[in-house]
Amino acid sequence: MSTKAKARPATAPVVFTANRLRDGRVVWLGTEGAWRDRITETTPFTPEASDQGLALAQQGERAQLVVGVYAVEVDPNGGLGGPTPLKFRERLRVQGPSVAAEAA
Amino acid sequence: MNALTPPQYARTYRYDEVDREFLRERIAEFRGQVERRLAGELTEDEFKPLRLMNGLYLQLHAYMLRVAIPYGLLNSAQLRQLGTIARRWDRGFGHFTTRQNIQFNWTKLEDVPAMLEALAEVDMHAIQTSGNCIRNTTTDEYAGASPDEVVDPRVYAEILRQWSTLHPEFTWLPRKFKIAITGSPNDRVAAQVHDVGVLAKRDARGEVGFEVHAGGGLGRTPIIARKLRDWVPESEFLAYMEAVLRVYNALGQRENIYKARIKILVRDLGDEFTQMVEREYERLPRDKYRLDPEVVAAIAAHFAPPPFAALEDQALPEDPEFRRWAAASVRPHKQPGYASVTISLKPIGGIPGDASADQMEAVADLAERHSFGEIRVTHVQNLVLPHVRQEDLYTLWQGLRAAGLATPNIGLISDIIACPGMDYCALATARSIPIAQRISERFASLDRQHDIGECFINISGCINACGHHHVAHIGILGVDKRGEEVYQVTLGGSATNDAAIGELIGPAFSYDAVVDAVETLITTYVAHRTPGERFIDTYRRIGATPFKDALYAPA
Prior knowledge:
The complex is a heterodimer of chains A (104) and B (555). Chain A has helices spanning 50-62, 88-95, and strands spanning 14-20, 26-29, 35-36, 66-78, 82-85. The model of chain A is unreliable at 1-5 (pLDDT under 50). Chain A is of the alpha+beta class. The longest helix of chain A is centred in the middle third of the chain and has 13 residues, at 50-62. In chain A, strand 2 (26-29) and strand 3 (35-36) form a beta hairpin. Chain A has one domain (14-74, 83-95). Among the domains of chain B are: 145-301, Sulfite Reductase Hemoprotein, domain 1, CATH 3.30.413.10; 417-552, Sulfite Reductase Hemoprotein, domain 1 (2-Layer Sandwich). In chain B, the strands form four sheets. In chain B, strands 16, 17, 18, 19, 20 and 21 form a six-stranded mixed β-sheet that branches. In chain B, strands 1-2-5-4-13 form a five-stranded antiparallel β-sheet. In chain B, strands 3-14-15-12-11 form a five-stranded antiparallel β-sheet. In chain B, a hairpin with a 5-residue loop joins strand 11 (330-332) and strand 12 (338-343). The longest helix of chain B is centred in the N-terminal third of the chain and has 22 residues, at 17-38. Chain B is globular and about 65 Å long. The interface between A and B is medium-sized, with 29 and 38 residues.
């Protein structure tokens, strides 16, 4: 596993994100360890249960399905119509680039 | 001639069969590594260094493939192939970078070997565009064309490329290493903010030698380079470069990534660094490193002048719209009757440095018709057609206009350098591109831009400073403040002969407020300028206080 700075304990509900190995696209941990394209298909873990979520997410790394798993604090019923990351960076991961990402 | 045949007179370095065989083997090796990764036989920790050595990053939304464009030189077949790659394996566009390279932002891992094979078809690759090695050497986009050129820097940039490619001793440096070389006394390569900046020049006898600067850099700790030597003879060029790299490789701080660049070593050691390089230089077996004049001549042959016609300079057509474009985009050439043309990749409201596949193909076609099939990429994220007949300029302008590439804003306030920022980059702490777009929209009026005159705005989305904000007249740095984006503003930077690091002007601005702040800076400049004074001149004359007062005065 990559050595990363230890994340501070979550104080809000969390979901887990990663990049899909095959194409690098952003994915979100759904129920029972399935990786989904949309954050709306996730169910947030409570801060107390975030370790369980991380263990489930890391199974995806060990199975070589995804890369770079990490926890994202969310508002379970936020402005994106479901779990909504508290930080702007992860809201961008949900929504994609804020600028045109196709040739005109 | 098929689409992949390089045009006869384009002066890019041509691979030989040894080069091509090496690339074939390298791609086959990486194809196997990708297959093993996809099959789960390699972990990410095992695979990551392998993909990085082939230019493949994992960014915020996808993999990104960074392709090397050696010292920013392309021929039309290469640019056309980049367009093909963009269309076939990406989303129909590419992003030209401040290192004169190109990035594809939506790469799929499984497609990368095929992309590398397509690159190899036109003598290109993605090696050493990542990792702690010597990266793409950058040079003057007007090399071989500019009237002020003393030495053709392409020859020595190619020598550096050959020396540094897969150099076994310098593949695992303490940190990445960037070299810029210019052959003009007017620095257009930001030499003084590179790990090594080289000024090629001539002595009284006309012999070529090199003034070498080291320890410049931007990022977290911006530093102007220190001059190590005023003159290194041509024959000793590689010996001296080897000595610089050896001292850095031995003493660079590997244990702390923030202190690992050569600039920290040079800053901390001062004169001692110079002396250590000299001692290493004296110690090296000179015969082994001597640059044979025949080798230099053989490489120089790749960059021989194309067959220019005997022409005279001529007046430009009267069309006022054309004249405005020409005033911004056309530059004198050392050959009478010719000019160099800078193609803006900064349309109003566009993404700085982006070009669609259609645009790449259009520029390739125009280069074949009007510039011996040659194109240059600039570190300001524009393109250049180096050798255009003045009599063809009007036709060229019409062709560029049809492709959406005739924005007459070169050197003006909307000719903004911007890194990909948080819209793409995994390291970024804020977005860069939308700030650039909003500034260019705010200053969309070309009359106003021309009235403001030369003004360089550079934007970085994190402290790593890929957008060169430290050396902008107006620098903008996006940072994260409790999960939201804010933007610091620096003033007074310069990347040319009078290189300077911009000064932080005060507290940061919100995403919504930063464009208004730029407007205030420009209004203040216009109010204080004397006739003919550029923004940077006014800033240097009156200092920061009037700008601070205007920005932070209570409403």
